Amino acid sequence: MSERTTEWADGGNDGTRGVAPHFDEVIHAPIRLRICGLLSASDSVRFDVLRDTLGISDATCSKHLKTLADAGYVAIEKKPGVARRYPITWVSLTGQGLAAFNAHVEALRQIVAGVMPDPAEPRYEKAR
Q: Which of 4, 58, 93, 127 is 20 to 30 A removed from 101 (C-alpha atoms)?
C-alpha cells in the first residue's frame, strides 16, 4: 500500500496514528484543511478539479495554495496539456506537508477526545 492509502472501515491505520500531535495554524484554516485532506488521498490533483471540488473561485484557491506552498506544504507544477494548448497545473502535498497534515489531524483528534496538551509543549505554532 502507498503511504497515502487509508483504511477506516476495518479500523486500520489512516496514516496519523502514532504521529506526534501538532496544531498547525497554517493548515487549520477551513479551506486549507480541506485542500490538505483532498491532496492527502492522492499523489497529485489538477488545480481545476481541486477548485471545483471545493466550490471556490480561482483566486481563492490560488491564495490558499500559495499560503500552503510558502509553508513548504504543497508543490505546484505546470505540465503541458495533452489535448489543450495551455499548461495544466498539478498540486501535491510535499513530504513535509503530509507530515504536518497528519500531525494536525492527530491534534484535532486529541481535542475532540478531550486530551489536555502537555504544558511544556507550545499549544500551536503561529501562522506563517
A: 58
For residue 11, what pLDDT is reported?
40
Q: Which of 71, 58, 63 is nearest to 26 (CA)?
A: 71
Question: What is the separation of C-alpha 60 from the centre of its chain, rounded to a whole number of angstroms?
Answer: 16
Q: What are phi and psi of 24, to 5 degrees?
A: -115, 110
Residue 16 near residue 105, CB atoms below 8 Å: yes
For residue 77, the cross-strand partners are: 90
- At 49-98, the pLDDT tens digits run 999 999 999 999 999 999 999 999 999 999 887 776 788 999 999 999 99
Report angle CA 8, 10, 14 to the nearest 5 degrees: 30
Q: What is the pTM of this model?
A: 0.76
Q: Which three cell numbers stand for residue 35?
A: 485542500
Long-range contacts of 55-59 (CB under 8 A, 24+ apart): 56/31
Asked whether 35 and 65 are in contact (CB, 8 A), the reply is yes
Element (H, E) at 77: strand 74-79
CA distance 93 to 9: 24
